[in-house]
Amino acid sequence: MPPTHQTDVLCIDGNLIPDSVNAPPSLFGQHYLLGEGLTLGLASMWSPNVYDHVWDTFSIGNGSAYHAPRSDDPFHLQIDSNGYTGVMSADAFGIVVTMTVLRFLVNEKRSLKASIHYNALRSYAGTHPEAQEIFQALD
């Protein structure tokens, strides 16, 4: 069952997209091949056990989406570029990876679509039970 994250002010649900193969073009736009490659590349660099998992795509009620590994086990992360080391759920890990890829596409490819998705996903991440860990990993 996909995660549901709530606050008193905002309720946005993460819903599994059954055919995740069709999700990357809508999330990463014309840069979907780059976005997918970066997603798996960053994930494997930050958490070595990521290769053991299938990735799903979740749509969120504010029009964006994110990828996350299918796992009930926590992920140990080490992000050398910002010094973050921690443990988080597969869902939170997927949000961190997806937001990082979207931020790259905004900065390097000047993608307006990625900017819109990044801001929507950032709002969603703020409602997540692991919001503090997510934002520490992104700093």
From TrEMBL:
Keywords: Membrane, Transmembrane, Transmembrane helix
Domain of life where this protein originates: Bacteria
Residue stretches spanning the membrane: 84-106
Cross-referenced InterPro entries: Antirestrict, Antirestriction_sf
Gene3D superfamilies: Antirestriction protein
Family: Belongs to the antirestriction protein family.
Protein name per its UniProtKB record: Antirestriction family protein
